[in-house]
Design a protein that fits this description.
Elements: H1 5-11, H2 25-33, H3 47-57, E1 64-66, E2 73-75, E3 93-99, H4 104-116, E4 119-121, E5 124-126, E6 130-134, H5 140-153, E7 157-161, H6 165-175, E8 181-185, H7 190-200, E9 204-207, H8 211-224, E10 229-232, H9 238-253, E11 265-266, H10 275-287, E12 292-295, H11 300-313, E13 326-330, E14 339-343, H12 346-359, E15 363-368, H13 375-380, H14 386-396, E16 406-409, H15 417-423, E17 428-431, H16 439-444
Parallel strand pairs: 3-6, 3-12, 6-7, 7-8, 8-9, 9-10, 11-12, 14-15, 16-17
Antiparallel strand pairs: 1-2, 4-5, 13-15
Length: 447
C-alpha cells in the first residue's frame, strides 16, 4: 500500500539539509508520495528506512525487463486500472513469431520486416521490439541455428518458446547474455524451467490451463526464488483471454493478490488465421492489459496502427502529446524556401506537416515549444506570443538556413505580427491562413 507524505516523512532523517535538491525533508516526502522524486536523491536515509520505503513504494504489478541495451523492453509496473486515474507506465512489447521449421526465405523476410517497419511520429521512434523464436522441430541444433540467425540479423529482444527444458538450456547457453524471456513453465516442467531461470538470470513465463492453475504456478515459482515472472492464462479465444486479462489486473491492483502481480503475455497469433482479425484482437490487448502481444508476423498495415495506438494509450493523460521543438525540413528545403511557424501540439504538427507535404513546396517548419498546447490555447495562455516566439526564432538557427527574412505565422495569431516585427528586426512577418487546409494553395503562391 502506498505511503502518505507524512508516513514517508517519519522515515526520513529530518535534517532539512537540502542535499536532495528540496529545501526540507517534509517537502521531499511529499514529492516522493506524489511520484515526483526518487528516494535515491536522499544520501542520508538509513538502510532500514530505505528498505521499508522501497517495499512500500513497489508497484503491485512487478516490472520485468526482457532484453538488454537500447531495445530492451520493460513491461509491468502498472499501478492503476484505468488510464484516467493516473497513467499507464510501460507500453506492451510487440512480438512476431519465427519458427525453426520456417524456410530460409521466410525467416529472412520476417527479420527484414522487423528491421524495416519503423516509424517516426511526434518526434518518437515507433517499432516492434521482440521476436518469439518458436521451436517446432524439437531439434536443439536446428533451434539454436535459428536463434543465431535472429541475433546476427536483428537487435530484437527474444522470447524463447519451447516446453522442452533440455532444448531450452541449449538455447540459453547462447542467448542468456541477451536476457530472453523463457516461455514457458507449465505443470509438467515447472521445476526444470525455474532452475534454468535462476541459473541464467532470465525472466520466466508461467502458462496455466486456467487462472486457478496459473495462480498455483506463480506461487510455486515465487517460492522457488524466481522473481521475474510473466503470466499466460492459457486461454486462446478472445472472450476468455479478455476476461482473464481483466481478472489478473484487478486481482493485482484491487485485491493486492501477489500471485497475479506480474505482467502478462497474450497470443493473438494463436487466436485466428485472419491477419486483420489478428490485428483487431491485438489492439484490444494493447489497451487491456497485455504486457507482451505476440503476432504471427509483422505487416505495415497492421503494425503501424498498433504502434500508434500503443503510443497514444501509454502517454500521460495529464500531459499533452507534444512534438520536440526545433526546425523540421519537409521536402528538402533550401535557402529560398518558405518558413512556417506553429505550436508543438502533436495534432497541430501532423496536420500542418501533412498539408505542407501535400503542397509539394519544400518548406522549413518551425515548431515552437508551447508545452503541448494548440495554437489558440497557447496564445491565450501567453505561451505563443511575440516575445517567446522571437526568442525561439533567434536561437533556433533558421537565419543560417535561409537567405530571406520571412516567417509565416498562423492566421489565428495575426495580432502578434506587429510585436514580432519589433522583436525580430529585419524580418518580415507574413500572416498565413487560419486553417491548415489552406496552406498548400498559400505556399504555392508564396513569394
Amino acid at each position: 500500500m502506498a505511503l502518505s507524505g507524512i508516513e514517508i516523512f517519519k522515515l526520513l532523517p529530518k535534517t532539512n539539509c537540502g542535499d536532495c535538491g528540496v529545501p526540507t525533508c517534509l517537502a521531499f516526502a511529499m514529492s516522493l508520495a506524489a511520484g515526483k522524486a526518487e528516494l535515491s536523491k536522499c544520501p542520508h536515509v538509513s538502510e532500514e528506512a530505505k528498505s521499508k520505503l522501497e517495499e512500500a513504494s513497489a508497484p503491485p504489478i512487478r516490472p520485468v525487463t526482457i532484453g538488454t541495451g537500447a531495445n530492451a523492453i520493460k513491461t509491468g509496473g502498472e499501478t492503476v486500472l484505468f488510464r484516467h486515474e493516473k497513467r499507464f507506465e510501460n507500453p506492451p512489447g510487440i512480438a512476431a513469431v519465427i519458427t525453426d521449421n520456417s524456410s530460409n526465405d521466410e525467416i529472412a523476410g520476417r527479420l527484414a520486416r522487423f528491421k524495416n517497419l519503423q516509424y517516426e511520429r511526434v518526434g518518437k521512434h515507433l517499432r516492434a521490439e521482440l521476436i518469439c523464436a518458436k521451436c517446432e522441430s524439437n531439434d536443439a541444433a536446428k533451434y539454436t541455428t535459428l536463434l543465431k540467425k535472429i541475433m546476427e540479423q536483428s537487435d530484437a529482444a527474444l522470447i524463447l518458446a519451447t516446453g522442452n527444458s533440455e532444448i531450452m538450456e541449449e538455447a540459453l547457453k547462447i542467448t542468456a547474455e541477451h536476457k530472453p524471456l523463457i516461455y514457458a513453465a507449465t505443470v509438467e516442467n515447472l521445476a526444470q524451467m525455474a532452475e534454468l531461470a535462476k541459473t541464467y538470470n532470465c525472466p520466466l513465463a508461467a502458462k496455466g490451463e486456467n487462472l486457478q492453475q496459473l495462480v498455483e504456478l506463480s506461487e510455486k515459482l515465487t517460492a522457488s526464488g524466481v522473481k521475474d515472472i510473466v503470466l499466460d492464462s492459457g486461454a486462446r479465444n478472445l472472450k476468455q483471454v479478455f476476461e482473464d486479462q481483466v481478472a489478473i489486473r484487478r486481482g493485482a491492483l484491487a485485491s493486492k493478490f501477489k500471485p497475479l502481480g506480474f505482467p502478462t503475455i497474450v497470443f493473438p497469433a494463436e487466436m485466428t488465421q485472419d491477419p486483420m482479425k489478428e490485428a483487431l484482437i491485438a489492439s484490444i490487448f494493447v489497451a487491456k492489459y497485455g504486457g507482451i502481444v505476440v503476432l504471427s508476423d509483422f505487416q505495415g498495415e497492421s503494425l503501424f496502427p498498433l504502434l500508434v495506438e500503443r503510443m497514444n494509450i501509454f502517454t500521460d493523460p495529464q500531459r499533452p502529446l507534444a512534438t520536440t521543438e526545433g526546425i523540421y525540413e519537409i521536402g528538402g528545403p533550401g535557402e529560398n524556401s518558405p518558413v512556417v511557424l506553429t505550436s508543438n501540439f502533436s495534432l497541430t504538427y501532423f496536420i500542418v506537416s501533412g498539408e505542407i507535404e501535400a503542397s509539394r513546396v519544400p518548406t522549413y517548419l518551425l515548431i515552437k515549444d508551447t508545452e503541448g498546447l494548440s495554437v489558440m490555447t497557447a496564445w491565450a495562455a501567453g505561451k505563443f506570443s511575440a516575445d517567446t516566439i522571437s526568442q525561439f526564432v533567434k536561437k533556433c538557427g533558421i537565419a543560417d538556413k535561409v537567405s530571406h527574412r520571412k516567417i509565416i505565422i498562423p492566421g489565428y495569431i495575426a495580432a502578434e505580427s506587429g510585436g514580432l516585427e519589433e522583436e525580430l528586426d529585419g524580418w518580415e512577418i507574413q500572416i498565413g491562413p487560419r486553417e491548415a487546409a489552406h496552406l498548400p494553395g498559400y505556399l504555392r503562391e508564396w513569394k
